């Protein structure tokens, strides 16, 4: 087959960076293999809504091979990358080894606990659909546990929540949780009152949404407090256990702690033989290739790139632009042309907080409140992949807006490790752990 | 509080039996507590569509406390029943003990492996949403594994499926799988051809859908074979391992085996001090109470009830009728009236097979094919709880019908134990198992 003679581009990771690189190679004279450890591309900006039971997993995810079914030069492979051999130009996966002529590493980032990995079990983070379902389960089971709590103190501990980190994810989680406790649940409980929930948002830095201009941070903080969130600024977490968090000499009792504070780049970056920054991101050349291996490109959250003396942020538009740029540079190389430096086009920065509450920074134009919220809604609908997802998510949002309900309040997928696991392991023989009570 | 003085009815299980009992007590002079180990009522007749990636979990489930939010005499509690003390009139749960004046046990049934519990890991069954997500994962990952299989033999083993048991669930799974392999997936794979999947449906008895009249069983068999399913009748499974099943001296190689063969009643039934039948169902008095404890009722799949010398089948309409009957008998007792025998009203029997393929038995009227399929669709839409679910499921079905697509082809919630677990456990330190590749 002559096709085999075409250069092989291997793309590791099917997030925004990897998928946009793959698409931009559609008409290039190459074979492309896109490998991801999941079977889907995830629209990460709406992941918090899956965690908060407003959307279902398939609403914001689509199978990679379905998205790419008509791009005939692509093979999609669900597999886990283990080892990158830049000298030998090959990557070892669980399911075998693949050689490449060009490699695009787009394996992204993961939440990190600043060296306190033991916090992970008490404070789950949010990067994948599995994470989102775990957070959803923690959240819903906390209200259930409050309802059957034997005393007021334990009930309060179940009703209270701490979210660590006031970047966009922390702000979205805190605002949505406050709405759920105030509006979605109250009439459904008999022994506890979800309206008495306290939602604490803890941030080590001096303001919420640190990537925003200070005036918008301040407006976001006020909107959060109006929703009922207690915002703790300049307070670093010093300990987390099953019953709460410590901020130096202050303690907040809460059985549910969510982590939205730190990220660390995918460990694959360490295997490229290049410099990495403090959180493991690979310092790439201006054209996004490795200085020592021009056949290897790094894009998305795994790449540490400067533009106009500022670090390019770890957001979806930057990852898409980098993916497309890496693809264009591969085409340049194949055509014998020089590569050029990546230029980040910053279209703006937006964050949502809750119903009618958001902030938008478009550089010259800044606004907040209801107009920002509508702007955020339409921007996110517009960028969702697939007409079907757009229609479904829009319908969900309209329904939720008028009913205050969240349709995905279904606990599935495992059990909350915080309760009952020990008891369940002692089940009478023959009783299956998943059978209905 | 005077309310506390009202008799306390404790309902264990929020399936059709327990939920209908609870609803039928809405205006009774009682306090009701409904306990389930999950937080939702599940519309089990459509569970196979969640397993086959056609519907999302929240489409066919609703939080029990949301369904019952306006019924003020009910407390919903998410908890796991451990021990029933019929003499002391109390039930011990993980989260504490509850006393009762009347008890309704509606804890249902679970799939069972005829004494071969070791088959469970190779052949998952389908009773809960967690089961459905596991089967979905097995199914989708099998096609992924076929795509990266190193040789033709292994590829064929991943493409082939065995479904054990040709009752309604087995027939639904086999027919849907055949459609997915033939229509939904083919254009998306490059190294494997899902159309070459073989779907084997294995039944120990002499015909499919044994609860149907023989003529409809035969029509169902022909419809299955037209969809491409190989139907093996009168063949009992003698062994199951990770690579296939044995039927006496015949072997079918297939890495994915699904179990739709046997049920066993919830083990709670054993604690009632009453007679149980071969599969653990409790033999109740004609009024559905326990002969020795008239304050205890057993309803739904856990109850063994005769009507007109025939066993009442373990189907949703029977469970609903039993739940409502138990509630009526509790009201009779409270009013000092006698109880009466349960009478099962059999409205008919229907089973779906695939696109335009189903069988319907309404007693005097029997039909199959497209009319039966439309009848099945409307009947199931009609009985779904909530306008929202009806609208969403109808939209999903219309969309799937025209596109041949299944929107929920998203692998979440854990990993397939059959592949990669060992490798994943050897991940380099710091790499999180769920991070995107």
Account of the 3D structure:
The structure is a homodimer of 437-residue chains. Chain A is elongated, with a radius of gyration of 23 Å. The N and C termini of chain A lie far apart (59 Å). Mean pLDDT of chain A is 91; it is low at 419-437. Chain A has 437 residues and is an alpha/beta fold. The longest helix of chain A is centred in the N-terminal third of the chain and has 19 residues, at 129-147. The first copy, chain A, contains eleven helices and 26 strands. The first copy, chain A, has a five-stranded parallel sheet with strand order 5-2-1-9-20, with helices on one face. Chain A is 30% helix and 23% strand. Chain A has helices spanning 16-24, 47-51, 64-67, 129-147, 152-159, 168-184, 214-227, 316-334, 370-383, 387-403, 421-425; strands spanning 8-12, 31-36, 40-42, 61-63, 74-78, 81-85, 90-93, 96-99, 102-105, 109-112, 161-164, 199-203, 229-233, 239-241, 244-247, 250-253, 256-259, 262-265, 282-283, 296-298, 303-304, 306-307, 310-311, 349-354, 357-361, 366-368.
